[in-house]
Amino acid sequence: MSVQYYCAMSLDGFIAESDDTLEWLTGHEGSYHGADAVPMKGTYDAFYDGVGALVSGSATYEFVINEVTDWPYSGKPCWVLTSRDLPMPEGDGVDIRFAQGSVSELYPEMKAAAGDRNLWVVGGGNVASQFADEGLLDEVIATVVPVVLGTGKPLFDRRLPSGPMRLTGTRAFDTGMVEVRYEIDRSG
Ligand SMILES: NC(=O)c1ccc[n+]([C@@H]2O[C@H](COP(=O)([O-])OP(=O)(O)OC[C@H]3O[C@@H](n4cnc5c(N)ncnc54)[C@H](OP(=O)(O)O)[C@@H]3O)[C@@H](O)[C@H]2O)c1
Fold this sequence. Notes:
Blueprint: E1 3-10, E2 14-16, H1 23-26, E3 37-38, H2 43-49, E4 51-57, H3 58-67, E5 78-81, E6 96-99, H4 103-114, E7 118-123, H5 125-133, E8 139-145, E9 153-154, E10 166-173, E11 178-183
Parallel strand pairs: 1-7, 1-8, 3-10, 4-5, 4-7, 5-6
Antiparallel strand pairs: 2-9, 8-11, 10-11
The site of NADP nicotinamide-adenine-dinucleotide phosphate (NAP) has 27 residues, from strand 1, strand 2, strand 4, helix 3 and strand 7.
């Protein structure tokens, strides 16, 4: 079981515009025809198959429920960190658990729910930093989109306490996006 921060970011390290819009990502059209190009299609589904539970901040959650008709994570428990009362979508298999406080206190429950699959830290950067601060983040899997936003919501909120990460893989997609995969030394 691994705690994975899996996301897409601009070349300059932002995961969303300041106003939370994602057109730079969802509307991106690019291509890459190098010999090492791999199809991007299907890669999200393959990642998602390995996910046992999810955790996100409330801004990310509100973006999803406002933009998407059906809750996309049915059948998998999803913690939403918030200090507020938020609406919950209806539907079969919706398993949303609103919670607040320290991620290290919530973590044992998330880990148990994930079972032998992974815990997906969906975002945003502040939530990822909370996991990193507590030494609970194992991997950062970022898909780099070749756009420069100049400003926006950062991949992490603050400096990682654990020092440099270890590269465990890269994939150049046929869309021109590149996935970088780094492992964090939890003991660091
Ligand atoms: N590019 C990508 O792959 C990607 C991935 C994820 C997200 N995103 C986007 O990035 C943006 C994320 O925005 P963000 O970083 O500003 O926000 P966020 O992490 O989604 O949400 C932050 C909010 O969550 C609540 N929260 C966080 N930790 C908490 C805790 N321990 N206890 C209680 N409440 C807690 C707080 O709000 P309240 O207490 O007021 O509720 C906080 O202001 C969104 O637009 C999202 O769509 C992009």
